Amino acid sequence: MSFNRRPNRIAGPGFNINVRYDDQHMYKARSSANGANSKVNSANSVENFDVKEAELLVAMNKGTMYHDGMTHCFSTANGFPASEGYQGGDSEDAVVRDILSQVRFIGVALTEYQPSKAYSEQGFVAQVGGVVTLINEGTDIIKPGDKVELGLNLSKRRKQTREKGIPRSKIRFCIQKAVSTDEKIKNAIDAHETSNANAGVSTVDKQAATNAVQAAEAAFVAQKQVFDTAEAAAAVSTLTTAQKKAADKKVKEEKKKLVPLEKALKKAEKALADCSACKFKTDDLREFLKIYEKSQSHVIGKAYSYARPGDRLEVGLQPRHPY
Fold first, then answer.
1. CA gap 46, 26 in Å, rounded
2. Mean pLDDT across the stretch 197-215?
3. Which partner from 42, 75, 196, 278 sits 20 to 30 angstroms from 186, CA to CA?
4. Distance between CA 276 and CA 320 in Å, rounded?
5. Are strands 20-21 and 147-152 parallel, antiparallel or unpaired?
6. End-to-end alpha carbon distance in the chain
7. Strand 56-60 and strand 299-303: pairing?
8. What is the pLDDT of residue 204?
9. Mean local confidence (pLDDT), 141-163
10. Would you tell me how many other CB atoms lie within 10 Å of the CB of residue 27?
11. Could you tell me the sign of the dihedral formed by the alpha carbons of 159, 160, 161, 162, in that order?
């Protein structure tokens, strides 16, 4: 049955390039030993790897061994192998983050392509600029003016937002509202500290510093109470001269004990502050900027219309820049 994939498309200039299919990734994704998470490793039929018009195209960050100078891309997350050392378990968010960290956005498919042994890829075209009409297959309500970025919807409800002619088992890349710059910076810092043991202080060190502050504070408070008691006793007006002299001597002795405890408390508080602060060295800052640049590269463009999940919307593709 034929149908129109792009009804009421907005007219406008577009920038298109010829691309090729990433056959090596497809063969690895279809392999039974691909190491993919169970959430994306089901129903890896041949049809799931076909590219349909208006699908989002991505390429692997680590290029495969092609020597033709062409961009090799794909549009499905089915059978996507987990990254080396992945430890996120079956959490949907962890799986999505892991997959998105391995790809970069290329453009939107203008033509369909069906992988075959003949490698006949003539006419496989991607639009990398201009206005495109997409389906909101994510979970966000997108409003005009919102920045949108590359996403992946692994929830079971994604079947309600699918297009005709697309296998229900196919997991396509989708669009979602781009997070704010502050949140991207926070996520990049968290990812940097997780991936690099030298980037920050471990949770164990922070807990030890916290315990040290609590112990120093308890000792200081206890001695402060003794000092206050001695000072109050020395202030009694009915004391004789001998008693007053003895009381003042007691105050001085307790004050001497209080001073080192106060210094120890300040030192412990400073150590805890140093643990909590994010102090980047030059190499750490460079690694953080790489992570932040990668997250910014997933920003696709700007929405020009309102779309609930399952609705079509117009998106202006824009140059992807790191900052």
1. 9
2. 68
3. 75
4. 33
5. unpaired
6. 45
7. unpaired
8. 61
9. 82
10. 13
11. positive
- Bridge partners of residue 177, in order along the sequence: 148
**Confidence label for 97 from pLDDT (cuts 50, 70 and 90):** confident
- 90 contact partners, CB below 8 Å, separation of at least 6: 37, 38, 39
Q: What is the pLDDT of residues 109-118, one digit of tens each?
A: 999 998 877 6
Rounded to 5 degrees, what are φ and ψ at 113? -150, 135
Rg of the Cα atoms in the chain: 31
Report residue 129 CA to chain centroid gap.
Answer: 25
Strands (E), the chain: 14-18, 20-21, 56-60, 72-73, 103-109, 125-135, 147-152, 173-177, 299-303, 312-317
- Residue 108's pLDDT is what? 94
- List for the chain the helix, strand, coil content (%; round to 5): 40, 20, 40
Please determine, for residue 207, whether its predicted confidence score (pLDDT) is greater than 80: no
How many of the other CB atoms lie within 10 Å of CB of 254? 18
Helix (H, G, I), strand (E, B) or coil at 142: strand
C-beta atoms surrounding 173 within 10 Å: 22
- Cβ neighbour number for residue 136 with a 10 Å cutoff: 25
pTM, entire model: 0.66
Q: Helices 241-276 and 203-234, interaxial angle, to 10°?
A: 160
Question: For residue 315, what are the CA distances in angstroms to 87, 112, 145, 221, 306?
Answer: 35, 20, 9, 62, 10
Joined together, the tokens standing for residue 95 give 């799986």
CA dihedral 55, 322, 181, 190 (to 10 degrees): 100
Strands 72-73 and 20-21: parallel
Six token digits for residue 53: 């018009």
Residue 166 is encoded by which pair of tokens? Answer: 């697309």
- Amino acid at site 37: N
* Contact criterion met (CB below 8 Å) for 35 and 83: no
Question: Is the predicted pLDDT of residue 323 greater than 80, yes or no?
Answer: no
The Cα 165–Cα 55 span in angstroms is: 13
The two three-digit tokens of residue 317, written as one number? 């593709």
